[in-house]
Amino acid sequence: MGDPRRFRNKTERPKKLWDVDRLTQDKSLKVEYGLRNMRELWRATAELKKYRREARRLLSLTVEQRRDDGVKILRKLAKFGILKEGSVLDDVLSLEVRSILGRRLQTVVLRKGLARSVSQSRQLIAHGFISVNGNPVTRPGYLVNLAEEATILHAKPIELESKTPEPVTEAPAEQKVL
Length: 178
Prior knowledge:
The protein is mainly alpha-helical.
């Protein structure tokens, strides 16, 4: 039967939770990428930390010891479009959280022009209007790899309304008759 599975946190809280500089930077990222809360940003940061931690560990080993694992990490990051083909482990250390946030489905849908705003792309994804490989995806935080990016389409026919109202023409003022 075995031991019960141990659930691990997908996020890591920042060490200085109430640092003003970090808060302003995180808030601007939250607005720019249309994140619902800071936990989504912390999840992307934790994923980036995981790759950077593994790259630092591999750089401390000899060349023969790190060859296979280093290739696996670089291949995975290249598959997601976070790094380019032919990158080295030092490039993993120079990554920023923007590179992870840029590969989220919500951001890719906006970049492809399937939505007019970040909030609209999030809403379309959450309501099942966006499909990846023909399957509707309802998670805005889904990381899209390069092969799947071409297959992102509207799952259902949708009419997107423009936010600009039509101009209203005023009728001529009526004259008073005595």
